[in-house]
């Protein structure tokens, strides 16, 4: 008997209507369209303008889209994982609220936070639960309202990030399709170079921290870029080598959408032509936990049963890794 694999069987997404273009950013900070496009590849990003709506709103919408497309009864879902760097609030898990709101009354849930690697790590987590045999349907959602932690006077960060959510359903597969292998890594040195300093247990919120803008994302761009380029490429190569795959065997590279130069460097290292690399950074920017599922959503109609996909991500912490997965259905 072949070992049960954990396969993606459905995809959904949600993107806010408001488009924050490079031209609009030119009126907000000292930057311009050519500079942003050349250095990041981003032309616009979606922003959830409603101040009273958080990551859960987008996660619910993405889940509802998936359920509507697949026709699955939410009561069949066993578990909901929300990968996010911007949960609605501390202590109360966003995933539990999402599960209740979509009618997944028989599911338990939890949040998973590993910055831009959150969804990648979530794939590993969901697959492990499926392969254990204890659970049959796991809803994994990547959702981030990055605009809630961005200082729109800081041109080093406000040009990069956007809001959005994507969802996938993991189910058991007996044909051998699904998650095949993973190579996940981390290095705590990264905590210094990319973080939100205040609001946690080390630096609780005070009038002073708010006044000093310590609740916004801060990053050392050059250092993060250097680590991301080398590590995303390295793990992508390692996952291929470990599974005796050549660049010709791979149908799609599914890379985190942080910067076009990082995406291109990873693709070049693996030896993949542009037509095999999923990209939507120009439209959405870096949606952190949502980038990977949004790629699957945008490219779902091009995916064929048996396609070999290599996912790669790099995030704050530092966190990074690659996953090799075979696609389980024809769209």
Walk me through what this model shows.
The protein is of the alpha/beta class and 331 residues long. 31% of the residues lie in helices and 24% in strands. The chain is built from ten helices and 13 strands. The protein has helices at residues 22-26, 33-40, 55-70, 94-101, 118-131, 207-211, 221-242, 260-270, 281-284, 291-299; strands at residues 5-14, 18-21, 44-47, 79-83, 108-112, 138-145, 163-173, 178-186, 194-195, 218-219, 252-255, 308-315, 319-326. A five-stranded mixed beta sheet has the order 1-7-6-4-5, with helices on both faces. Strands 8-13-12-11 form a four-stranded mixed beta sheet, sandwiched between helices. Helix 4 links the parallel strand 4 and strand 5. Helix 7 (221-242) packs parallel to helix 8. The protein is globular and about 55 Å long. The two termini are 27 Å apart. The model has no long low-confidence stretch (mean pLDDT 97).
Helices, strands, pairings?
Elements: E1 5-14, E2 18-21, H1 22-26, H2 33-40, E3 44-47, H3 55-70, E4 79-83, H4 94-101, E5 108-112, H5 118-131, E6 138-145, E7 163-173, E8 178-186, E9 194-195, H6 207-211, E10 218-219, H7 221-242, E11 252-255, H8 260-270, H9 281-284, H10 291-299, E12 308-315, E13 319-326
Helix pairs in contact: 3-4, 7-8
| Helix share, percent | 25-40%
Mean of residue pLDDT values: 97
Structural Rg = 19 Å
**Strand ordering within the main sheet:** 1-7-6-4-5
Query: What order do the helices and strands follow?
Result: EEHHEHEHEHEEEEHEHEHHHEE
Distance between the termini: 27 Å
Describe the global form: globular
Structural class call reads alpha/beta
Low-confidence stretches: none
Give the beta-strand count: 13
Largest sheet: 5 strands, mixed
Beta percentage is 15-25%
Summed up, the helix count is 10
